[in-house]
Amino acid sequence: MVTQNIESIDLSVRLGSLRLANPLMTASGTSGYGPELTSFIDLRKNLGAFVTKSVTVEPRKGNPPPRTVETSGGMLNAIGLANVGLERFVAEKTPFFEELNIPVIVNVAGHSIDEYVTVCCRLDSIDCVNGLELNVSCPNVSDGLEFGTDPVRLGELVATVRREVSNSLLIVKLSPNVTDIVTTARAAIESGADCLSMINTLQGMAINADSRRAILANTCGGLSGPAIKPVALAMVWKVYNRVAREAKVPIIGMGGIATWRDAVEFHLAGATALAVGTTLFVDPEAPAKILGGLRDYLDCNGISSVSELIGQVETR
Amino acid sequence: MANPPASLALGVSANRQLCRDHFRLTLCTEDFPAARPGQFLYLGPTVHADLGSTSSGTLGLRDSLPMPFLRRAFSIANLRRADGKCFIDVIYRVVGAGTQWMAGLRKSDQVSAVGPLGNGFGPRPENHDLWFVAGGVGFPPLMWLANSSADQANSRVFFFGASCADFVPSILSCGEDAGRASEIPGCAAVIATDDGSLGVRGTVVDVLTKYADKRKPDGPKITVYTCGPEVMMRAVVEFCSSRSLECYACLERAMACGFGTCQSCVVPVADELDGQGWRYALCCTEGPVFEASRIIWNHP
Ligand SMILES: Cc1cc2nc3c(=O)[nH]c(=O)nc-3n(C[C@H](O)[C@H](O)[C@H](O)COP(=O)(O)OP(=O)(O)OC[C@H]3O[C@@H](n4cnc5c(N)ncnc54)[C@H](O)[C@@H]3O)c2cc1C
Ligand SMILES: Cc1cc2nc3c(=O)[nH]c(=O)nc-3n(C[C@H](O)[C@H](O)[C@H](O)COP(=O)(O)O)c2cc1C
Ligand code: FES
Q1: CA closest to B4 among chain A residues
Q2: How far does B279 lie from chain A, in Å, by closest CA?
Q3: A288 contacts in B (CB within 8 Å)?
Q4: What spacing in Å lies between the alpha carbon of B257 and ligand 3's midpoint?
Q5: CA dist., res. A210 & res. B265, Å (int)
Q6: What is the 3-class SS of B132-163, one letter each residue?
Q7: Taking a C-beta distance cutoff of 8 angstroms, is the pair B188, B155 a contact?
Q8: How far is it, in rounded angstroms, from Cα A313 to Cα B24?
Q9: Distance (Å) from the C-alpha of residue A179 to the closest C-alpha of chain B?
Q10: How would DSSP label each residue in B103-121?
Q11: Does the beta-carbon distance from B61 to A283 stay under 8 Å?
């Protein structure tokens, strides 16, 4: 076993203009606006960046319950973008971020390009917001189709937001509900995305055989948790190798990350940073454990910087 | 404000059957944050302690493939401190994989718990008659509440409804004596069974009606606390509103996180500050106890 000074191991990663002290982030919608997690972990020590729940222009109550249901190795959710709306977000939630001392990324959702632009412009002017992550898995009001499933529509959205955003890192969060995720990744990159995050939830459904009814009030929902990890790994690997590496656009990998092994695997597939989502519901201390394990792994393998793992998977 | 929750490993000190489908799990730890009736624990198999520190070894978050994957919520049925230790009871009914896992726990096994969670029952009004109205597996939080209200209450009555005698835990009756609950000393107990096999034949609301009708108009005020199947709670709440009785309901909702981040567990409540007159409250943080008149039961 190779042993180096464990303190000298470099866990920091770079996402465009942002430096993260370690690669772990929260996945949007799984940590609220921050304060809830502080009962369990020191966010400053254990997270490289914090990512908020989606913010929309107007407050949204979200879908009726039941909104979530457990499925094999994961869960379905149809929360429906419940959030306090842009103005209350700025007034009530950003003071917490000012004290946080780690980069804060706000996830932005909308049902029209104008809505995304309104939210992004307002947040881009706020000092404690360091990045904007576009949740493009929302249906467009004009035709009901998700922005993220069509490269032309996605390109138009990203290009428009790009023109308005000057201070914050612009991240596009890709939807896995497409035939070829490389195509939408390329559209996002060519339209000016600084960074990609992937994957959002996979569409799914749960049915109760006894009552013969759909379990979620919304009928369908998004699948997350360990069940989707293999899908996420394959998508990260493809996008990294086919477009992102060459374009030098970093990837934030997510989908079922629960242990330090999962973290290593996502780095090897091509992710620069990692987000932990559903696992936080089961174990809110997971980031601390994953980070400890990642550090030990690097130490045992004589690797001095986590960046050395990125994209290094050997294929057969 | 309630105490902040913690993530803890708890030891199993006992796990016993109470009646046909209720079990009591007693968990033990050296230190547990202060908690109050109505708060709950979020339980799951032990998270691997060495998860963070070895590069070989564990493959998953849990010992075996996660089943259950999410934690399961259980009201705290009692909490007592003795000999420098803290003992926490939960009483559960086996209904699926998670509670099956619990039924298999043995003394000195370990479980992982997050808690105490939720906003429990508020302070009880002084010198009221307190009526605790439980059905099915809704009795555990009310049992702790009844036991910790002896000093403030003018009198206490514990009502329990079940389909038949088999489903009445022995701790809520003394064998054939349905007028006393062996584990709620000093509190009157009234049992109603659908088939009349123990206590009064009928529903708990039938019994409540009889009790209320018998009272003198100038008697002490009554405050009602209810927990149980939703149909029962709705009937109890309706009864209370028809008699202008203050009522608090302890609700259950499907949960994922238990501490306010996932937004799974919403309960529609009246809110005059909201433009539409209502909003979704989170059962896990704002509840699970709600002032019953605020709950919108017939929400589309
Ligand atoms: C705040 C709170 C306190 C609770 N306190 C207790 C308690 O003291 N004792 C007790 O026995 N149970 C309690 N419950 C319910 C308990 O959480 C469920 O019985 C348990 O999650 C079932 O898990 P399972 O894996 O065995 O069953 P599953 O296979 O998950 O479900 C079996 C059946 O139970 C239903 N169910 C699952 N979860 C819930 C839920 N959260 N609420 C209502 N129905 C559900 C399912 O729809 C299904 O029909 C509480 C729930 C909440 C939210
Ligand atoms: C309850 C819940 C709510 C979510 N809300 C959002 C959201 O508001 N915006 C968003 O972009 N993604 C949202 N997601 C998706 C996650 O950020 C993440 O992409 C996905 O869950 C996969 O990661 P995981 O398996 O680690 O959870 C949500 C996921 C869950 C489980
Ligand atoms: S269970 Fe997650 S917010 Fe209530």
Answers
A1: A39
A2: 7
A3: 52
A4: 5
A5: 23
A6: EEEEHHHHHHHHHHHHCCCCCCCEEEEEEEEC
A7: yes
A8: 49
A9: 29
A10: HT--TT-EEEEEEEESB--
A11: yes
CA-nearest residue of chain A to B70?
A: A282
A277 CA distance to ligand 2 middle (Å): 6
R_g of chain A, CA atoms, integer Å: 19
Task: Show the DSSP H helices in chain B as ranges.
Answer: 97-103, 139-147, 204-214, 230-242
Q: Name which of A22, A28, A102 is nearest A255 in CA terms.
A: A28
- Sorted by sequence, the CB contacts under 8 Å of residue A246 that are 6+ apart come out as none
* Domain spans, chain A: 6-62+80-203+224-309
CA distance B233 to B226: 6
**A306: three-class secondary structure by DSSP:** helix
Are the C-beta atoms of A177 and A203 separated by less than 8 Å?
Answer: yes
- DSSP label of A315: P
> What Å distances lie between residue A169 and A18, A91, A133, A274, CA to CA?
7, 22, 8, 16
- Write down the residue that tokens 């009030």 correspond to: A217
Q: Give the C-alpha separation, B222 to B124, whole Å.
A: 11
Q: How far apart are CA A93 and CA A52, in angstroms?
A: 10
Helices marked H in B222-280: 230-242
Nearest residue of A to residue B45 by CA position? A282
Structural tokens at position A49: 């960046």
A10 exposure class (CB count in 10 Å sphere: 0-12, 13-18, 19+): middle
A6-62+80-203+224-309 adopts what CATH topology?
TIM Barrel (3.20.20)
Residue whose tokens read 């003992």: B87
CA within 13 Å, CB half, B277: 2
Among A54, A77, A216, A224, which is best to mutate for testing ligand 2, by the most ligand atoms less than 8 A from CB?
A224
DSSP secondary structure of A27-53: PTTSSTTSGGGGGT--HHHH-SBEEPP
Counting ligands in written order, which one lies closest to the CA of residue B286? 3
Q: Where are the alpha helices (DSSP H) in chain A?
A: 43-46, 86-88, 94-100, 113-124, 151-164, 181-190, 229-239, 245-247, 260-269, 279-282, 286-300
Nearest ligand 1 atom, CA B101: 26
Look up residue A92 and give its amino acid: E
Token pair, residue B146, equals: 């009844």
Identify which of A157, A161, A163 has the alpha carbon closest to the alpha carbon of residue A175.
A157
Report CA dihedral (A290, A232, A199, A286) to the nearest 10 degrees.
-20
How much distance in Å is there from the Cα of B265 to the middle of ligand 3?
5
- Closest Cα to residue B14, out of B24, B29, B1? B24
The neighbour count for residue A196, using CB atoms within 10 Å, is 29
> Taking the CB of residue B282, how many other CB atoms lie within 10 A of it?
24
Is residue A58 less than 8 Å (CB to CB) from chain B? no
Q: What is the pTM of this model?
A: 0.93
Rg, chain B, Cα only: 20
DSSP B244: T
pLDDT tens, chain B, 300 aa long: 467 889 999 999 999 988 777 899 999 999 899 999 999 999 988 754 334 444 433 433 444 444 578 999 999 999 999 989 999 999 999 998 889 989 999 998 899 999 999 999 999 888 899 999 999 889 999 999 999 998 887 889 999 998 888 888 877 776 555 567 778 888 888 888 889 888 888 999 999 998 888 888 888 899 999 999 999 999 999 999 999 999 999 999 999 999 999 999 999 999 999 889 999 999 999 999 999 999 999 876
